[in-house]
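note to self: dont lose this again. the chain is below, predicted strucutre after it. 307 aa total, dont forget to put it in the shared folder this time
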Amino acid sequence: MLNLNDLLLFAQAVEAGGFAPASRRHATPKSTLSKRVAALEADVGTRLIQRNSRNFQLTDVGRAFYEHARAALIEVEAAEQAVQRRLAEPSGPVRLTASLPTTQFRLAPLLPELARRYPKLEIQMHATDRFVDLAQEGFDIALRAHFKPLADSGLVQRQLTVEPVLLVASPGYLREHGTPRHPRDLAGHCGLLVAPDAGTWVLRANDGKEERATPTRQLVADESVVLITAACAGLGIAPSPHSICSGALVRGELVRVLPRWSAGAVTTTVLMTHRRGQLPSVRAVVEFLAEKIGGAAAQASTSAGTA
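---
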């Protein structure tokens, strides 16, 4: 197969009218041009250029060869430009994965806006609570909410938010059971827990003071929608990240319990592989998430801290 670089140098020499002017025009040593054209002639098995100290002229075969070579180079340039356009404008498929609660409460409201902002993107959303191996399964981005630092997996990590975990309950529950005024009052209340071993809540006040509270175990569920639904139904008090319970708070289905205290914090992090993270399409999605999720969480955290 012919060397495309040799074809390019041959075309440059023909268009410039000789090795010397081509050398000056393209900053390529004259000796390199002459040597590579000679190698090209050896590959095709015939002389393409008649040349001596005073003459530089295409042979008949060389003239026909140049016409086809130039057409091939035009196609190569078009292919390169297509790649450059793809790299310059976010486009093509982006595979994104997140847990079910993160998808429902974080991403679902944002994906239509993302699609409108970048109409050439094809977002492929996969919601699962299963741990996904980005590299092995071909995903570009994972959005993960976690209470502890993520393990060093070799992936690129970008922290988006750290948001408080609030205690929430329905107005009906509080009317029936009373409203706690201090963390010690939670001992007489029904707790909706995320795990069997999460029966004691470590609460932190706005001024940094810590208290521990152990409510009566009423329901244990490791799924956020179940806990929020149970809280709205008046079953007890539930800890919930602000992003998950905010809708119910706005609608009045839930109210915040002990508004000057939080039950920990949850971090939301974007993960991507080094290779895929360089694509403009992936970078555009990550920046969009940082803008929308990070900005919204910062505003919510400020509001929660002053409540």
